[in-house]
Design brief:
The protein is of the alpha+beta class. It contains six helices and three strands; from the N terminus they run H-H-E-E-H-H-H-E-H. The chain is 45% helix and 18% strand. Strands 1-2-3 form a three-stranded antiparallel beta sheet, sandwiched between helices.
């Protein structure tokens, strides 16, 4: 079932074949900036998440690795086994780890300027 589907996706160039994905330079020089808006009964909130490498490869690896380290080393006495979203179980400890790796998380009541995308890329080149 999956093999024929995979070959069709390759033939139509919908997905890359193994080894045809982005190169190391593309991954290293990538970045992202995601802007969000949420409306609640108490008002509108704006958020921005940005990273300093390709979101599909570099940032995913960073998030997974730092999450694993956080679970292994940053538990506190309030930890309870179960199924939780990452923000609940790792909270501020994971946020601190990700910010130390260059990930940015901003939330506020005012829109976060779209111009920040260009400054994110500029700050990456300065490193």
């Amino acid at each position: 079932m999956f093999r024929p589907t995979r070959y069709i996706l390759y033939a139509l160039r919908i997905v890359p074949r193994p080894g045809e994905g982005p190169g190391e330079e593309f991954t290293r020089n990538g970045f992202f900036s995601l802007h969000m808006e949420a409306s609640t009964a108490s008002g509108t909130f704006y958020g921005k998440v940005s990273g300093t490498s390709d979101p599909g490869y570099g940032e995913t690896i960073t998030y997974m690795g730092e999450s694993a380290l956080c679970l292994a080393f940053d538990r506190d006495k309030t930890f309870r086994p179960g199924v939780y979203p990452p923000s609940v179980i790792m909270g501020a400890a994971l946020l601190r780890r990700l910010r130390d790796k260059g990930c940015q998380f901003d939330v506020g009541r005012a829109p976060i300027a779209a111009v920040a995308i260009a400054s994110d890329q500029g700050s990456k080149k300065e490193k």
